């Protein structure tokens, strides 16, 4: 609390020198808030919890549901029955945007609207710091990555106004959400089978992408939906080379960058594509929880070449939006600060090399049913895989055994498995991104926030399964 004459009045209650000293601390905090509002970047050092709560309390006081003597005669007035729920949301209950646009200012929620705009600036800065300096604009969408991709596909189609564009070229990646996003948006996926290399790595077939565009006709294709973050031994799609093909034929490239923000290699590749005059990226989408360590529920849409596309995505969102994923990310980014964010990114890169090195050492020095699949290591530096030299039933038990020892995350992929993802689309070898991978294998990930102790504990467990 600070107002004109505060120092003078407070000095009648306690000693003036104590008031003056206290106000210096208050003014320092107010200066931090002013810098945040004006510069709209991650603070160099993270804010304390008290500083964040103070800021949120101030913004909450700007929302009408917290006005003194407020009279609400509408169907949506920010009323919250449970005091526990109200506290959980820091008294911010109106949500964000308006029914016609995600980022529109909400007249009943000036404070929440400011938080939204600030969060969009902060996450854009975080993506720049991660290696994509050419990103120009980002928005946080309160939906999962797959649903956000569907929103982007629909936005691209609406902006082109070419109803004959019914197809999305999709280099195979055995994750259901992306295929479902294409289907949800009303398009038909054209699956491009991958190349299985001699070193065990799997990558998108660029020649097949171009051949399929020629075969189907660019006038009938909305975009290529490429993927940068994937389970080894699949490697990230080469978005630069795919972007060159898209540029050549005048179609878009939407990138599923689900957990790619934490990888310097991936972000620099996206950055290179944005900067090129001969390649293209319409937008790239990333998960909030996988990259920024917040609860599940949000995604970030970013663009560097066509920032108006971000506005189109915002305008296609139907209805008032939940504030929760935005608030979670806003608090987290303020808490991390620039130094904390860069430290987490650097630590993850170091731990990936440590994890691989320790795995190599353990497998080399002991007889093991596992072998490191080395082919994907240089291009996929988030995930890596170990082949499993066991019969199918025994290989499957490896994952079960790890799970029941409180180890989550590893995935056992069995060769020859089949799965129907959509009613009209089935895959052989599902999980391995190709029809005929020669081994059963287990995938591991070194994701942001992992600790060295977790790696050591996993290595100990690996000897027991």
UniProtKB/TrEMBL annotation:
Required cofactor names: pyridoxal 5'-phosphate
Biological process terms in GO annotation: conversion of seryl-tRNAsec to selenocys-tRNAsec; selenocysteine incorporation
Main location: cytoplasm
GO CC annotation, single: cytoplasm
GO molecular function, one term: O-phosphoseryl-tRNA(Sec) selenium transferase activity
Top-level lineage group: Eukaryota
Protein residues bound to substrate: 98-99, 106, 320
Binding site for pyridoxal 5'-phosphate: 76
Site (May act as a substrate filter by repelling compounds with a negatively charged alpha-carboxylate) residue list: 75
Modified residues annotated as N6-(pyridoxal phosphate)lysine in this record: 290
Catalysis performed (reactions): O-phospho-L-seryl-tRNA(Sec) + selenophosphate + H2O = L-selenocysteinyl-tRNA(Sec) + 2 phosphate
Places the protein is found: Cytoplasm
Keyword terms, alphabetized: Cytoplasm, Protein biosynthesis, Pyridoxal phosphate, RNA-binding, Selenium, Transferase, tRNA-binding
E.C. designation(s): 2.9.1.2
Function: Converts O-phosphoseryl-tRNA(Sec) to selenocysteinyl-tRNA(Sec) required for selenoprotein biosynthesis.
Family note: Belongs to the SepSecS family.
PANTHER family with a match to the protein in the record: O-PHOSPHOSERYL-TRNA(SEC) SELENIUM TRANSFERASE, SOLUBLE LIVER ANTIGEN/LIVER PANCREAS ANTIGEN
The name this protein goes by in its record: O-phosphoseryl-tRNA(Sec) selenium transferase
């Amino acid at each position: 609390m600070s107002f004109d004459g505060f120092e003078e009045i407070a000095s009648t209650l306690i000693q003036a020198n104590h008031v003056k000293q206290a106000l210096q601390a208050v003014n320092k905090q107010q200066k931090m808030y002013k810098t945040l509002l004006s510069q709209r970047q991650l603070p160099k050092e993270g804010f304390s919890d008290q500083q964040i709560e103070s800021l949120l309390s101030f913004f909450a006081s700007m929302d009408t549901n917290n006005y003194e003597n407020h009279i609400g005669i509408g169907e949506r007035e920010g009323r919250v029955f449970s005091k526990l729920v109200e506290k959980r949301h820091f008294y911010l209950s109106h949500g964000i945007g308006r029914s016609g646009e995600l980022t529109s200012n909400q007249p009943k929620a000036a404070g929440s609207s400011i938080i939204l705009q600030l969060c969009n600036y902060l996450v854009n800065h975080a993506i720049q710091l991660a290696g994509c300096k050419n990103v120009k604009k980002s928005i946080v969408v309160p939906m999962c990555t797959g649903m956000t991709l569907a929103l982007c596909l629909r936005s691209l189609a609406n902006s082109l106004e070419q109803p004959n564009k019914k197809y999305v070229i999709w280099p195979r990646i055995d994750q259901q959400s992306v295929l479902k996003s294409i289907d949800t948006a009303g398009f038909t996926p054209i699956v491009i089978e991958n190349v299985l290399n001699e070193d065990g790595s799997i990558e998108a077939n660029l020649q097949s992408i171009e051949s399929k565009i020629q075969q189907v006709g660019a006038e009938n294709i909305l975009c290529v939906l490429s993927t940068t973050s994937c389970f080894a031994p699949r490697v990230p799609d080469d978005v630069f080379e795919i972007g060159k093909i898209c540029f050549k034929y005048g179609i878009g490239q939407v990138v599923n960058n689900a957990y790619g923000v934490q990888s310097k290699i991936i972000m620099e590749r996206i950055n290179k594509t944005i900067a090129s005059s001969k390649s293209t990226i319409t937008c790239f989408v990333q998960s909030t929880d996988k990259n920024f360590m917040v609860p599940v529920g949000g995604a970030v849409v970013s663009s560097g070449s066509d920032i108006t596309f971000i506005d189109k995505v915002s305008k296609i969102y139907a209805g008032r939006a939940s504030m929760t994923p935005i608030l979670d990310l806003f608090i987290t980014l303020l808490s991390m600060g620039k130094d904390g964010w860069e430290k987490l990114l650097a630590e993850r890169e170091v731990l990936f090399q440590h994890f691989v090195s320790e795995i190599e050492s353990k497998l080399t020095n002991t007889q093991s049913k596992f072998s490191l699949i080395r082919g994907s290591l240089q291009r996929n530096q988030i995930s890596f895989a170990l082949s499993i030299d066991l019969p199918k039933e025994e290989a499957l038990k490896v994952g079960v055994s790890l799970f029941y020892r409180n180890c989550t995350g590893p995935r056992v992929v069995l060769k020859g498995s089949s799965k129907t993802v959509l009613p009209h689309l089935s895959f052989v070898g599902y999980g391995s991104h190709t029809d005929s991978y020669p081994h059963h294998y287990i995938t591991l990930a070194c994701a942001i926030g992992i600790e060295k102790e977790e790696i050591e504990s996993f290595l100990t467990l690996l000897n027991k399964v």
